[in-house]
Structures are given as C-alpha cells and as structure tokens.
Amino acid sequence: MYHPPSGRQRYYNLQIPPAQRLEVRELFLSQQQEDRLQANLHLFPNLQILSVIDSQLEQFPEAILQLPLLEELILKNNQISLIPAQIYRLNSLKKLNLSGNNLHTWPEALSAMPQLQQLDLSGNALSEIPKSFKELKNLERLQLADNQITNMPREIGHLQQLKELNLEGNQIKRLPRSMEKCRQLEVCRLSKNRLTSLPDMMESWSNLNILDVRENRLKSLPQTLQNCPTLQRLLVAKNRCKTIPNFISGFSWLKVLDFSHNGIEKINKQLAGCLALDQLDLSNNSLSHLPDLDKMSQLERLNLAGNQLTELPTLPTRLKYLDLSRNRLSQWPNALTHLSRLRALSLEYNRIDQLPTTFGRLNDSLQSLKLKNNPVKCPAKKLIPLDQLQDLSGLMPVRKFENLLQFKQVAKTIKLPKELHPAFFALFQGKEKELLATFDSEKWQYALNFYLGPVHDLCREYLLKRFSHPISKKNIQQICLAGHTAFDSQSLAQRLQAQGIGYSTEPQAATSHILLGFPIPGKIAFTFPIPIQGVALINEKRLNHFLNKQEKRYLWSHPQEEQVEALDKLLLHPDAANVRLAIQMLHGGGVPDNLRETLFAAYLIRTEPDLKTALKQFLAVNMKDKGKQLLLQNQLYKPSILNGHLSPNERSFFNRNGLSFDKIVRLLNTTF
After folding, report:
1. Cα separations in angstroms, 422 against 4, 188, 426
2. Where are the alpha helices (DSSP H) in 450-572?
3. How far from 43 is each of 18, 48, 84, 389, CA to CA, in Å?
C-alpha cells in the first residue's frame, strides 16, 4: 500500500504513483530483479539515498549513474564484481557500501571521488590496495573487514580525516608507520590478522577510543599507547603477551580491558589505576594470584575463568557478572559474600564441596548459578531464598530444579511470606505433614491458594476432617463459596434458595457452612481466612448429595434399570441433540453410580463446547476431591486412555473414584 510522503519518508517497493515519484528522497529495496531495477530507477530523479540489498545483482546497475543528487548508495550482499568507471558522475555521493559482493580488485574509479566520507568494501575478495586510494582524502570511515589483504600501503597516511578503520579478518603482517598521520582516528579494528607487533607511533592518536587487536601474534604493546588519553576499549585477547604492560595502570579512563587467552602468569600493580573499568576479562591465562580489585568501583563484569586461582582477592561490590569456572577453588570464596548485586555466577569445574552459611546473602539479585563438575551437594530448600534464580546447573537434577522454580513462582503469585517458604516447600514435596497441626488461619489460607503439588490437597484434607460436621436441613442456613467448584454459581444459588438456604461469596453473620473449592492457577482464589469459628466446612460431593436428597432426585436414590439403559444410549448417541436430551434428564434426576463410566466416555468423545462443559460438570460434582483437578484442568486425554498408556495421575483418578477403566475403554472402542 502506498502512503503519501511526510518529511523524509522511506519506501520499500517501486509501486509508487507517478505524481509522487519526484518527491521520493529515500528508496530501500531488497530481492529486486536487475532488469526491473534498471527500468524503474530513472523514475526517481531526486533520490538522495538508495539501498538495494540481497538482490543477486551481478552488475552495477547503470541506471544509478543517472541519479545526480544521490548522497548514499548501499548495494550490500549482491554479486557485483566490477564498478564502472563512470561512477565518478555521482559527484554528490558521500557514503558507498559495497560489502558482501564479489570484488577481487580495488575499484580504481573510486580515486576520482574525493568527496567520499564513508566506504565499506567488507566481505569481498580484495588482496591489494592500490596507491591511488590516497585520493580519498575526505574519507572518515573505511571498512575493509573479511578480505584477503596482506599489506597496507603507506599511502594510508594521506587519509588524515579518517576516524574509523576496520581491517579485521585479513592477513596483514605489519602496519605502515605512516599511520601516525591519521591523527583523527577514533576506532581501529585489527583483529584476526597476523600482526607480530604494532608500530611505535601511537602518541599521535590522541582521539583513539577503541583499539581491537584480538587474535593476532602480538607479544607486547607499544609504549606510545600510553599517550592515548581517550582510549576506552582495549581488546588484546588471543595473542602472545606474557605480561600486562605497566603503563596500563595509567589508563584511569579505560572502560573495557580484555587480555584473555594470553598466557599471563602474574599481575601486580598493572591494573591499580584502572579505576573506571566496567568490564575486565583475564580468562584463560595462567594466573594463580590476583591483587585486590575492590577499588575498581565501576566494575560490573569480571571474567577469571580458565586460570589457576585457589583463592580470590577482595572484589568490587558493583559486580553483576562473575565467571570463575575452570580454576582450583576448593572452598566457597569469602569474597562473594558481599556481592549483593551479582546476577550471574559461574563456578563450574572447580573443587568446591560445600556451600557456606552465608550463601543466602546472594538472594537479592542472583539469576544464574552454575556449579557443574564440583563435588558440592545442596538440598533444594537451601536455594529457596534466591528469589531471582532462573538458571542452575550442578547442584541438583534438572527436574528437581524445575520443581523448585515452580514452587517459587506459585509462592510469588500468592504472595507467600518468605518466612513460610521452608515449611511450604516441605509440604510441596509431600514431607513433614505434621506441620499442618501448627497452622493458623493465615497459613491455611495460603495453603489453600497453593495451586501446585500436594500443599492444597494436604491442607484441604486436614481441614475437612477437622472442621466438617454433619449436614442437615436444620443446621444449614447459608452457604459461602470459597475457591473454584464445578457448580455453576447462578444455578447453585437457585437450588439453595429453593431449599431456603442463603448463598454468598464472602462470609456473613448468617454463614453456617463454607463450601471448600479448589485453587485457581495464577490467582488468589481463597480471599478470606479459613476456618471461621463456628462455621463448618463442606465439599462439593456432600453438598450435591444433600441437595439431591432434598430435591428427591429419583435416579440418585432409586434408579430404574430401563431408565439407566435409555440414558446410556442417549449419552453415546452420535446425534448431539440426543446427548442434550440426556443432559436435561440428568439435570432433573441426578446421576446414578452405574452411569458414571458412560458419562466419562461421552465426555471424552464429544467435541461440542457446551456438551463438553455440561458433561464435565456432572462428572466433577460426582467424583472424589482427590484428582478432580485433572478433570477441571482438562488433563485427561482420550488417546492415552485408548492406548492404555495412563499417566500416574490418570491412573490415580480412575482408582480413587472407583471407575472401571476396562468398561470405559470398551465404550470408547464400540462408540461411533
């Protein structure tokens, strides 16, 4: 769809009404056919920015040469191998991106374009740079990464406006001393080359912010580097430096320092003055000792993996990410005690055999803890205080940790006080059931809301046994609903009203019984303390039995064989209308015990939402409390029942409710 331009509008196709083409200043295209591009570009004579990427172009589109106002040209990720000499006609062009093409030789035509400020020829197959490139005197950013360049010509010294130079991923063995004339250089990327040394001429690079010389063959850094007062990122990983130069200590402005993979054996005071560091990587060296680092008050990321440390120095309290894996630590480092902001900690492949009593002090922020390949063992309850922990390896099986995370999520949802976590976690594991005898109303309320594991079931069973009383017409005055039940609230209220019994969702002065339902995942379903003094507890089945008895539901008390047989056929009839008729009859007469298997089979077979819901409600109010959650949460599956591959929960559901599994399978296999 075409939208009229507003300001510097960008377009992504060529379907633009003729009346608007003169107004187009920016055109961004991808996956364009070459002939279509050639035929249409002349329609946009006022283009200032043109991008044609991922279009398999084999030739430079000559139609581009007819765009005199073009300032930025992006032909990234094509297959262009030759740049026409006439490109000089684009005398307004300042930015040219030809990265990811098939250029084997430097485009000589570029020497006639001194106005260029940015040039990107990365990802081609260039092996040499001609002397003529010195004519690009206004170039500020030069990207030549991932080519096959072996030598930089000394003419680079003519590019005195150069601010960014990217030569990473080439085969360069040396740099010309003439680079000292590039006094405006801010970013110099030289990684993945074959440099054995850097020219000792960096004192002129007074604006240098980033120096990246990773993955070369350097044994040292030039002394003149200390005269770069604005250097903020120094990356020297994967070289052959056995020591860190002493002048690094004078880099009080440095933010990121990476000397990993160098074989460094000792550090004394070389880092003492690097007080502004926020990232320090000394991994994969041969360090057995470190000086105190606590004065680096800005340090947030510290990587010491792959060394020979047996103890840690004092660490800065601001640390968020700390990697100590593959060292020789045999005890939990005391230096970790005060790192209250730590988010990720790795101690993999050490020799730690126990956690300290101060372990819980990491609880405010720790999200990832890795202790793989240590002899340490840890009970799950010791990890409960770590509120933010989401990633763990090495302390316990994955399944146990997932259970712990589930527990913590539910505890967070129901706002369980931290002091109750240990007791509730024991109940969550099905242990220490005697704790229930010590619970007060507040703790019972939390337990009833705990919708995962056996916590709710244990509490519910305990409360119903202790606070349940006989129910009769004389002692029941008003029912208060707590939690979720299979009853329809409106229908239940009408049935109770017909018997002269009140109904509410909050306790009142007249409340005589509380109908104890089930928790709702992700919510707080029990909103008031339970039990209430003088108020009895009752479950769904007892209330349903009482109401059926009061309403004289004949099928419940005295089912007739022919009536049950008729209902049996109607429930399993292929016509949904007949099933609905059977449901109406059950609403009026109740559910006899010998019809429950048929009802369950019909529930599994029917797909109509209204029938599914009605059949599920009938089943729920006539099943025992334990296992009813499976039914209410749709966790009973027809395929597993037909195949006989029952889960433990499904098998428990059938056994506890006295359902004949064989009869249900027979009904499922013989029904339409």
Report:
1. 64, 55, 6
2. 455-467, 489-498, 540-550, 554-557, 561-571
3. 8, 13, 21, 59
Tokens of 281: 């990587």
CA angle 523, 465, 551 (to 5 degrees): 80
**How far apart, in whole angstroms, are the C-alpha atoms of residue 199 and residue 176?**
7
Distance from the Cα of residue 526 to its chain's centroid: 32
First to last CA, the chain: 51
Q: Can you give the pTM of this predicted structure?
A: 0.70
Where residue 352 falls (left for φ over 0; alpha for ψ -120 to 50; beta otherwise) is beta
Cβ 390 vs Cβ 366: under 8 Å: no
**With contact defined as beta carbons under 8 Å apart, do 512 and 489 qualify?**
no
Q: Which helix (H) or strand (E) holds 95?
A: strand 95-97
d(CA 258, CA 256): 7
Radius of gyration in angstroms for the set of CA atoms belonging to the chain, rounded to a whole number? 38
3-state secondary structure 136-161: CCCCCEEECCCCCCCCCCHHHHHCCC
DSSP string of 563-590?
HHHHHHHHHT-SSHHHHHHHHHHHHHH-
Beta bridge pairs of residue 74? 51, 97
Contact 370, 379 (CB under 8 A): no
Distance of CA 264 to the CA centre of its chain: 36
What distance in Å separates the CA atoms of residue 384 and residue 382, rounded to the nearest whole number? 6
Long-range contacts of 94-103 (CB under 8 A, 24+ apart): 94/118, 95/71, 96/72, 96/120, 97/73, 98/124, 99/123, 99/124, 99/143, 100/76, 100/124, 101/75, 101/76, 101/77
Instruction: Give the tens place of pLDDT for each residue, 367-389.
Output: 899 999 999 887 777 777 777 77
Across-strand partners of 187?
164, 210
What average pLDDT is seen over the chain? 85
Other Cβ atoms less than 10 A from the Cβ of 85: the count is 11
Let me know how long the chain is.
Answer: 672
82's CB contacts (< 8 A; 6+ apart) are 59, 60, 103, 107
pLDDT tens sequence across 648-670: 776 777 676 667 777 777 777 77
Cis peptide before 45 (omega within 30 of 0): no
